[in-house]
Amino acid sequence: MADKLRVGVIGCGDMSRNHAFGYLRSDRYEIVALADLSTEAMSDFDEHFAEYSDYKAEHFTDFREMLEKSTLDVVSVGVWDKGHRAMTLAAAASGVKAILCEKPMADTIGAAADMRLVCERNNVKLAVGHQRRWIPAYTMAKEMIADGEIGDVRMITAFARDGLPNYSSHQADMFRYLLGDPECTWVMGNIERETDQWARAIPIEDKALAMFGFEGGAQAVILASLTPRAGWGAWISGSEGLIDLSLTDVKLMNATSGGWQHHKPDGDYLKYGDDDFEVREAAIAQARDFAAWVSGEATEFRGEAQHGYKALEMVHAVYESARTHTQVQMPMKTMVHPLELMIEEGHLPVRYPGRYDIRNRSLRGENTASDEENG
Ligand SMILES: NC(=O)c1ccc[n+]([C@@H]2O[C@H](COP(=O)([O-])OP(=O)(O)OC[C@H]3O[C@@H](n4cnc5c(N)ncnc54)[C@H](O)[C@@H]3O)[C@@H](O)[C@H]2O)c1
Description:
Blueprint: E1 5-10, H1 14-26, E2 29-35, H2 39-48, E3 58-60, H3 63-69, E4 74-77, H4 84-93, E5 98-101, H5 109-121, E6 125-128, H6 136-146, E7 153-160, H7 164-179, E8 184-192, E9 195-199, E10 202-203, E11 207-214, E12 219-224, E13 234-238, E14 241-245, E15 250-254, E16 261-263, H8 277-294, H9 305-324, E17 328-329, H10 338-344, E18 352-357
Parallel strand pairs: 1-2, 1-4, 2-3, 4-5, 5-6, 7-12, 9-18
Antiparallel strand pairs: 7-13, 8-11, 8-17, 9-10, 11-12, 13-14, 14-15, 15-16
Helix pairs in contact: 1-8, 4-5, 5-9, 6-7, 7-9, 9-10
The structure holds nicotinamide-adenine-dinucleotide.
């Protein structure tokens, strides 16, 4: 086994803990440095991983100082979306081998495009943390579709909430993963925004309905906050059968299944019953495959940045469709955040004023409101 990959983590909040859990449990990495504006966040991070005897990370309140002083192979970017571009660019320019940036890839497609460009220019592998690509049930459903168990996929239905980029970049990525990563060719949708709701310093809608068309003819729909239902999985209908997919189960019905055939694919790492099954199971598998890719043992990686980019593009295209009242043809040409643009241009006045951020609960100290400069 090659030497362990030296990791630096930028932003020591919830999702970075998940990256770190994957790094430590996959046994391919050592976490050598943390960067966070909050020293308390870094101390809590240390405490959280105290059980791992080889965990020992130096602390930095300036991520650029961390990049300069620590010799890193891998950087995790786990701050809020608006920080992803600056931190990825700085990490890429510092000479690391690879970056695992959280989803959504960035706050705008323009920023995400910059991230891909600078990583390519510096020969740095860039990945986006859509960890649901490693949920065993998702992979089983994907394989059933590839094996023709339900014929040609006609429609995939998924349910969401809490803002399209924040929540539904997962659903957009899931559609492409299940279908074998075809291009999304068009998007049409609409949103409702009566409250001044934000998620991690980015405005979000109250409700959304979004349709996506893919090369090959499949279509998909997201119902966001239109029904009480939200979360993992999808209803998948094909020309010759149906799949009902959830976090842990796959139900298949086709001409030979004899009614609903129930599958419960086992995770490689953690068994069912764990509340954190998704993120923990997937975090280890993602980290394992990421190490293989970074070390050159694998030529491809399920979470390569092109997929994160396309997921972001798909959800931003819903806003763009609402903004322009058109069926948006992909690729997107508008590189700013279309919802922000609509708000700035006064096209989306809120009925119930008063800005609030659904993720302010993770702020520390006296902060009660997200500071965009920090994110
Ligand atoms: N893949 C998933 O399922 C999933 C789940 C949750 C969150 N996320 C994503 O993860 C990212 C982080 O979200 P979170 O909920 O973990 O955030 P969080 O609020 O828990 O943590 C963010 C951390 O970043 C730190 N930070 C802010 N500005 C910084 C700076 N300039 N330098 C260094 N540190 C800084 C904060 O102090 C905080 O500790 C977001 O992009 C979010 O969308 C993904």
